[in-house]
C-alpha cells in the first residue's frame, strides 16, 4: 500500500472469483496485499465469502471489508519479515468485532472504532459475518501531527459512536459510501481525512483533538442533515454552532470548499441518488426534495457541479 497511486475508482476483489475450496486461501492473500502481512483462519466451517473495496486517497487508504467470521493475526514473525509502519483504524459498520493489542481488548459494535499499529502484534477476531471500514495511514506522520512518541497507549481503545470520535467514524463511513457513487467527489472531501485520523489518535490518548478539524466535520454533518431545507442560510449554520459568520468562514478558509460550496455539493449528491433510485420521478420533485428553490436553480447548480444536466445524468447513470 504505497499511497502514491492516483485517486480514482476503487479496486474491488471478491472470493467469488475463485472456486470455493480456494476461497479462504485467496482471501488471506488479498488481505496481506491490501493491508500488511497477516495470518488468518476462518471461525466457521464451510464456504467462506469475502469482499474488499479499496480506495487510495493519496494521504490515506480506505478499505471496506465485508466477510465471514475469521481470526486475523499480525505476529512477531510477520513483522520481522515485512516491517510496514502503519496506523490503522477499524470502524465497525455491521456485525461485531474485537481488536486486541498491547494488552487491551476493544469490542466493537456498529458505529464504534478503534486504532491499532502494524509495528506490534495484534489480533482481529470476528465470530460471524461483519463489515468494517478500515483506514490506513503512515504511522510516523500521525505521531508527528499529534506529538505522541509512540502508539502504545492508544491502541485497542474503543471510541464510542456517541463520543467525539463518533464524528470521525461517521465521516469515514460516509466517505466510503460516497466513493462508490462519486469517487472524485469523495476525493475532495477526503482532504479532511488525515486531520480526522490525527483527532482520533488524540482522543484515544485522552488528549483534546484539534477542535477546528472536528468542528468542520460537525458542520459538514449538519449540512447533510439539513440540506433539504431551501431556507437554510450561512447565518443558520453559524447560529447552530454558536459561532459568528466570520468564524464559520475562517474554519473553511484555505480549503477547496467553502460552506456554500459544501451545501451545494451535498444537495447535488442527494439529487444524484434520487435520480438513480427513481428514474420516473419528476425533476421538479427531486429539486424540492434536495433543498433547491426550484427547477431552474436545480439545473444550474447540478450542471455546474456534475458537468451535465440532471436529465443527462439520469440517462448515463447505471441502468
From TrEMBL:
The keyword Transcription applies. Gene3D superfamilies: Homeodomain-like. Pfam families: AraC_binding_2 (PF14525), HTH_18 (PF12833). SUPFAM superfamilies: Homeodomain-like. Keywords: DNA-binding, Transcription, Transcription regulation. Residues 217-316 form the HTH araC/xylS-type domain. It comes from the Bacteria. The keyword Transcription applies. This is AraC-like DNA-binding protein. It comes from Kibdelosporangium banguiense. The lineage of its organism: Bacteria, Bacillati, Actinomycetota, Actinomycetes, Pseudonocardiales.
Amino acid at each position: 500500500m504505497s499511497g502514491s497511486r492516483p485517486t480514482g475508482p476503487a479496486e474491488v476483489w471478491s472470493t467469488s472469483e475463485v472456486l470455493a475450496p480456494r476461497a479462504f486461501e485467496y482471501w488471506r492473500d488479498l488481505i496481506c496485499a491490501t493491508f500488511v502481512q497477516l495470518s488468518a483462519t476462518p471461525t466457521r466451517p464451510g464456504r467462506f465469502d469475502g469482499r474488499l473495496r479499496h480506495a487510495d486517497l493519496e494521504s490515506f487508504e480506505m478499505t471496506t471489508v465485508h466477510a465471514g467470521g475469521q481470526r486475523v493475526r499480525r505476529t512477531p514473525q510477520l513483522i520481522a519479515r515485512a516491517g510496514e509502519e502503519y496506523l490503522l483504524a477499524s470502524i465497525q459498520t455491521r456485525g461485531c468485532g474485537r481488536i486486541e493489542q498491547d494488552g487491551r481488548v476493544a469490542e466493537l459494535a456498529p458505529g464504534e472504532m478503534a486504532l491499532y499499529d502494524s509495528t506490534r502484534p495484534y489480533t482481529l477476531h470476528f465470530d460471524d459475518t461483519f463489515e468494517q471500514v478500515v483506514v490506513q495511514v503512515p504511522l510516523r506522520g500521525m505521531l508527528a501531527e499529534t506529538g505522541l512518541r509512540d502508539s502504545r497507549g492508544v491502541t485497542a481503545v474503543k471510541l464510542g459512536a456517541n463520543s467525539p470520535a463518533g464524528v470521525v467514524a461517521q465521516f469515514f463511513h460516509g466517505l466510503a459510501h460516497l466513493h462508490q457513487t462519486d469517487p472524485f467527489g469523495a476525493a475532495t472531501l477526503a482532504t479532511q481525512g488525515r486531520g480526522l485520523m490525527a483527532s482520533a489518535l488524540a482522543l484515544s490518548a485522552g488528549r483534546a483533538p484539534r477542535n477546528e478539524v472536528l468542528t468542520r466535520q460537525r458542520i459538514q454533518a449538519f449540512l447533510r442533515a439539513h440540506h433539504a431545507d431551501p431556507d437554510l442560510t450561512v447565518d443558520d449554520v453559524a447560529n447552530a454552532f454558536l459561532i459568528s459568520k466570520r468564524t464559520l468562514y475562517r474554519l473553511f478558509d484555505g480549503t477547496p470548499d467553502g460552506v456554500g460550496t459544501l451545501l451545494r455539493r451535498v444537495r447535488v449528491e442527494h439529487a444524484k441518488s434520487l435520480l438513480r433510485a427513481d428514474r420516473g420521478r419528476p425533476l421538479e420533485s427531486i429539486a424540492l426534495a434536495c433543498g433547491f428553490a426550484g427547477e431552474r436553480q436545480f439545473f444550474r447548480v447540478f450542471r455546474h457541479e456534475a458537468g451535465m444536466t440532471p436529465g443527462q445524468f439520469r440517462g448515463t447513470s447505471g441502468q
